[in-house]
């Protein structure tokens, strides 16, 4: 009886796993080998979209088109599969190896990691601790310093509000930059409501912080400096080590939102003198809904907890830990550590291909952000004289995002691009391409092709391009609706 | 054999049943049935975007051509609409446009050029943004695009009338 059940379960498990992850590693054995050691092959993920066997319709017809023809062209798009995903800064696909490692904790090992009286609890506790260790290793920390949260947004909230509130009796000043993620800016705004003083440092035209300015802004009562490692919109890498040294000299805590940086660029919290660091799971091929915060223990960073509860995670973040998501995050970090070199080479190659391809075929493009101090998985480029949303509409087989106002709910162009000093009309024409571990050369080539065709078409339609070709300086024109 | 059920269970327990039946296809797991454009445009907007009518330029200097340029690059919307009027009949015989703006803006101005053809100047001025917005099923956030198209038509008409005035005073 027992044998039959066992065999059946084993077969089911094998069947499920072989479909989830076709060829990469052997059957997972929980407890002994927690994480797959397989290396990524050239094309680890199976083909997620079928090849398109037609070109988008772009003929010029003067007669209006039949309803049926419109429906047909939409049908073709529906049938041909999904768009190419080039929006890695928004989120990333879960690495199949990560999913494999999460599965046992979604199915049979469902115990609460804090239940220390039975094996259901022990087994999930083990994976939580192993994940903690993997995350810590990736950033050069100790596992006791890693706290699990629901994502980088929560980590940023804890870092900024928690630290500021703890030291509020003596220190009332916080420094951040204008190009931070919304959750950091909003947390700072909340602190301002509580009576703190926040300085939002401007950035230079290349997106980097001016260190002299930072040095002069730090005061005796500054408690925290929060500067993100890699910017999500433009991809620039801030000089973390220099900032960290500056903060350590002045006795100020240094927090960095490393959601876009962890697992992609080498990070060492001791070398870079980072005191607090936010991690996001779904940016490094892990699951959504999980993140972590690194909180330094020597010298100790004290935090006032935002979330009250049973005192889990050193009292900083109460709540039952989601073992499955944590297994995913730990696995993603372990894979990232293993494959950072390979990923970096792969992504740089694709970045060069994309950038050179665009530059060769399309004139008047501007890359937003520094070219050298950059994470090459992010290319934010503005196409002058055309608007971003209309370009994205033409790029319907490519999933990317734009800094244009029309794509935001509030009709305001991207604040990060404005902070770089980019003109508003150029900010409207920006597109951000995200390249990742699973992006292929074919996808990049197709994107370039589509981009070239659409930019040409839209420039033909653009009055600004026409004016420029006639030699009129657009800046001198009095527009009818200038604000 | 018993090991693979659970290496950690010190007590035998009934293994939870996994999903039986057909194994899940990898693509099915990751490919959810979803419309191609989540925030989908109406078919007419897409049609005008893919096959815009009357993109081009007319001679600005000609006496029977009126040019209207509205909007501002800072707002992300600039429309240039030109109309050519038959001097004898007073009917608009040719209309072209160029637009810097989102898909809805392009569609609104393209539609505007279609609608003004064959109309007199008074009839063209009577076209409202509501008509354009309804025809293209524009969501509330895009209504300003149709507003701009209406402004463009009016600006072109006004430009033409101004030219006529100047022509009259010059010859008078």
Automatic annotation (TrEMBL), chain A:
Enzyme class (EC, first level): transferase
UniProt keyword terms in alphabetical order: Iron, Iron-sulfur, Metal-binding, Pyridoxal phosphate, Transferase
PROSITE patterns: AA_TRANSFER_CLASS_5
Coiled coil: none
Keyword Coiled coil annotated: no
UniProt-listed Gene3D superfamilies: Aspartate Aminotransferase, domain 1, Type I PLP-dependent aspartate aminotransferase-like (Major domain)
GO CC list: L-cysteine desulfurase complex; mitochondrion; nucleus
Cofactor(s) required for function per UniProt: pyridoxal 5'-phosphate
Aminotransferase class V domain location: 84-446
GO biological process, one term: [2Fe-2S] cluster assembly
Catalytic activity, EC: 2.8.1.7
Keyword Nucleotide-binding recorded: no
UniProt xrefs under Pfam families: Aminotran_5 (PF00266)
An MF annotation (GO) of this entry: iron-sulfur cluster binding
Family (UniProt): Belongs to the class-V pyridoxal-phosphate-dependent aminotransferase family. NifS/IscS subfamily.
The name this protein goes by in its record: cysteine desulfurase
The organism of origin for this protein: Planoprotostelium fungivorum
UniProtKB/TrEMBL annotation, chain B:
Keyword field: 2Fe-2S, Iron, Iron-sulfur, Metal-binding, Mitochondrion, Transit peptide
The keyword Transit peptide appears for this protein: yes
Cellular compartment(s): Mitochondrion matrix
Family: Belongs to the NifU family.
Residue ranges occupied by any NIF system FeS cluster assembly NifU N-terminal domain in the UniProt entry: 41-164
Any one biological process term the GO annotation gives: iron-sulfur cluster assembly
Matching Pfam families: NifU_N
Co-factor(s): [2Fe-2S] cluster
InterPro entries xrefs: ISCU, NIF_FeS_clus_asmbl_NifU_N
Originating organism: Planoprotostelium fungivorum
GO terms under cellular component: mitochondrial matrix
Keyword match Plastid: no
Official protein name in the record: Iron-sulfur cluster assembly protein
Function noted in UniProt: Scaffold protein for the de novo synthesis of iron-sulfur (Fe-S) clusters within mitochondria, which is required for maturation of both mitochondrial and cytoplasmic [2Fe-2S] and [4Fe-4S] proteins.
An annotated Gene Ontology molecular function: iron ion binding
């Amino acid at each position: 009886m027992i044998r039959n059940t066992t065999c059946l379960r084993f077969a089911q498990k094998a069947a499920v796993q072989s479909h989830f992850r076709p060829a990469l590693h052997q059957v997972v054995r929980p407890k002994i080998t927690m994480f797959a050691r397989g290396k990524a092959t050239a094309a680890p993920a199976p083909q997620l979209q079928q090849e398109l066997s037609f070109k988008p319709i772009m003929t010029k017809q003067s007669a209006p088109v039949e309803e049926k023809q419109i429906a047909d062209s939409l049908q073709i798009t529906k049938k041909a599969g999904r768009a190419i995903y080039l929006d890695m800064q928004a989120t990333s696909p879960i690495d199949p190896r990560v999913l494999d490692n999460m599965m046992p904790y979604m199915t049979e090992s469902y115990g609460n990691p804090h239940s220390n009286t039975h094996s259901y609890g022990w087994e999930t506790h083990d994976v939580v601790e192993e994940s903690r260790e993997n995350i810590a290793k990736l950033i050069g920390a100790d596992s006791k310093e890693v706290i699990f949260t629901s994502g980088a947004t929560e980590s940023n909230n804890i870092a900024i509000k928690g630290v500021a509130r703890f030291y509020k009796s003596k220190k009332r000043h916080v420094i951040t930059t204008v190009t931070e993620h919304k959750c950091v800016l909003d947390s700072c705004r909340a602190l301002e409501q509580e009576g703190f003083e926040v300085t939002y440092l401007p950035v230079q035209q290349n997106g980097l912080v001016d260190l002299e300015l930072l040095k002069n802004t730090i005061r005796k009562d500054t408690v925290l400096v929060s500067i993100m490692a890699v910017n999500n919109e433009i991809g620039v890498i801030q000089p973390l080590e220099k900032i960290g040294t500056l903060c350590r000299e002045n006795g100020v805590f240094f927090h960095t939102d490393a959601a876009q940086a962890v697992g992609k660029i080498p990070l060492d919290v001791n070398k870079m003198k980072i005191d607090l660091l936010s991690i996001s799971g779904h940016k490094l091929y892990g699951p959504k809904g999980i993140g972590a915060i690194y909180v330094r223990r020597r010298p100790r960073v004290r935090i006032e907890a935002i979330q009250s509860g049973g005192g889990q995670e050193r009292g900083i973040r109460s709540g039952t830990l989601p073992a499955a998501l944590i297994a995913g995050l730990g696995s993603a970090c372990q894979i990232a550590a293993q494959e950072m070199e390979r990923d970096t080479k792969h992504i740089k190659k694709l970045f060069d291909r994309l950038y050179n391809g665009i530059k060769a075929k399309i004139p008047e493009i501007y890359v937003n952000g520094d070219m050298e101090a950059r994470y090459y998985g992010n290319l934010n480029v503005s196409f002058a004289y055309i608007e971003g949303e209309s370009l994205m509409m033409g790029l319907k087989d490519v999933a990317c995002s734009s800094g244009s106002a029309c794509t935001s709910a509030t009709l305001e162009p991207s604040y990060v691009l404005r902070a770089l000093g980019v003109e508003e009309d150029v900010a409207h024409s920006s597109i951000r391409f995200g390249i990742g571990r699973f992006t292929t050369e074919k996808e990049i080539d197709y994107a370039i092709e589509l981009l070239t065709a659409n930019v040409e078409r839209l420039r033909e339609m653009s009055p600004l391009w026409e004016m420029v070709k006639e030699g009129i300086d657009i800046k001198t024109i009095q527009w009818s609706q200038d604000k | 054999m018993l090991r693979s059920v659970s290496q950690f269970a010190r007590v035998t327990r009934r293994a939870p049943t996994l999903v039986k039946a057909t194994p899940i296809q990898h693509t099915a797991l990751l490919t959810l049935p979803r419309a191609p454009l989540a925030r989908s445009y109406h078919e007419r907007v897409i049609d005008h975007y893919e096959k815009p009518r009357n993109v081009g330029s007319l001679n600005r200097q000609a006496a029977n051509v009126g040019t209207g340029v509205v909007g501002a690059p800072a707002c992300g919307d600039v429309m240039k609409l030109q109309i050519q009027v038959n001097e004898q009949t007073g009917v608009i015989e040719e209309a072209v446009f160029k637009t810097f703006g989102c898909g809805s803006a392009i569609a609104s101005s393209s539609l505007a050029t279609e609608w003004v053809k064959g109309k007199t100047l008074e009839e063209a001025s009577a076209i409202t943004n509501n008509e354009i917005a309804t025809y293209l099923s524009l969501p509330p956030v895009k209504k300003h695009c149709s507003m701009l198209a209406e402004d463009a038509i009016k600006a072109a008409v006004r430009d033409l009338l101004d030219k006529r005035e100047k022509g009259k005073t010059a010859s008078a």
